[in-house]
Amino acid sequence: MTKTTMFLLGIWSGMLAIVPVSAAGIIGVTRGGPDIQVPPSEPANATWRYGLGAAYQVGPRQAILFCGIRREYGPGVDFEIGTDGVLFDDLSDVRASRAVVLSRNHLEPNPNSHPPGKPAVMVKYPVQGGFIPLGARRADGSEYEPGGTGFGVASAIGWPAAGSDPSGEEVWHFDNPRGVEPFEGDEDYSYFEVQQYAFDGEAFRVVETRKVGETELISGWRVTNRGLSPAILDGDDLILGMVAAPLTPAGTVPSEPTGAVLVRWKHRNGRWEAADIIPVTGGDNSFEPSVARDLDGSLLFCVRGGKEPDYNDVRIWRSRDQGRSWEQIIYVRGIVGSTPICLNRATDGTL
Hints:
By secondary structure, this protein is mainly β. The protein has 2 domains: about 210 residues, no CATH class; about 140 residues, no CATH class. About 0% of the residues lie in helices and about 50% in strands. The protein contains no helices and 23 strands. Strands 7, 8, 9, 10, 13 and 14 form a 6-stranded antiparallel beta sheet that branches. Strand 7 and strand 8 form a beta hairpin.
């Protein structure tokens, strides 16, 4: 990537396009087709499509696109497949054939089912995380020690697995018009896959994948979901919006609702780890947070409402002290649909 070129991501009907924009911050909309649409690993008997995309700079002139994959005509709503990473160094040459598999669904027994051990499809939702580009330098000219490394977080949620007919084809049994749904209530089974990444100037690698429970990511908290936008740099750390609730003093899962929080990730002991957590919204069921830095250096935090009457509202908080404290600065009722929304920033820094 040059200093004078950045890119935007557009999503229309599950198709992802990359739009070059000038350093002056002029934003355009392409009329061309999607740069990438079908994962090269799509099986012959299913329809997979790239959907949600997030871009990360990984080197002086290289970036990678994290592309969530959805199974179209799937057995239920939001039945995802996993995430691919597409490395590129030229906006005119972004190809799905370069895709590296980051995560995929897999089968495992559900220990919480009745009876225990029912087969579950661990459905992998889009990976979100952060990356320090190889060769990146601080304002004083010193090089970041963890340059060329980063992390990713994917939610893995257990769904009842399909059966099969004599031909070996999948057979899904629908109990409601929306199709199959994840295990619920005391049968719920979910966790995070936390990955460590490295880029050496040529190859992007998944160095490690760890299974981390909701109460294991950071001490004293139950973290239930990752944010909607990538982590951003803050000093030597990466900060990411997530969803969480504090555990009780006895260490048990709380009964109060979750809320949107800011999680600070630090590079220590050779890996990126969640090190600190700061509540932003309180326990109001807010989710899908995004964080961005404003022109004056303050942080802005946007969340999707998790209950009525907040479903269709835009709510944004600001922090002027690196996320230690927050104040709500925008609250507009009924301005958006009940769909994911997030903060984005133009090339010139304008939100």
